[in-house]
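Pipeline run #58 for the internal structure catalog. This entry was flagged by the ingest filter as a single-chain record with no existing model, so it goes straight to prediction. Upstream metadata was stripped on purpose; only the residue string is passed forward. Reviewer on rotation: M.T. Logging verbosity set to normal.
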Amino acid sequence: MDAVEEYLAKVPEPARGALMKLRAMIRAAAPAEATEGISYGMPAFQYKGPLVGYAASAKHCALYPMNGSLVTALAEELKGYSTSKGTIRFAIDKPLPAALVKKIVKTRAKENDSRK
């Protein structure tokens, strides 16, 4: 079992199910060359550097876009979710919409493509 599978196995339901759905959305939106592993103690995708991470806590799940300015730029679309500089928190029973996850992942991939 790889490190991400080990992390997910330790997350109790229903949070594990929410993370699995989020993981599938990220994987679908990420470039084919993206890899998944553990970064900062949580599952994360890498693509020419950090792409996004995700994690569960006792009361919510979170998506980490690895870019604080992206959270600010998407403030309007993130209304109704708890955010901080580099974190988008969501209730286990109120997952992030697939279109929003796709937008975040695609934006991060473009940012990483443009880095030298």
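catalog note: The chain has a mean pLDDT of 94.
catalog note: The chain has four helices and six strands.
status: ready for reviewer M.T.
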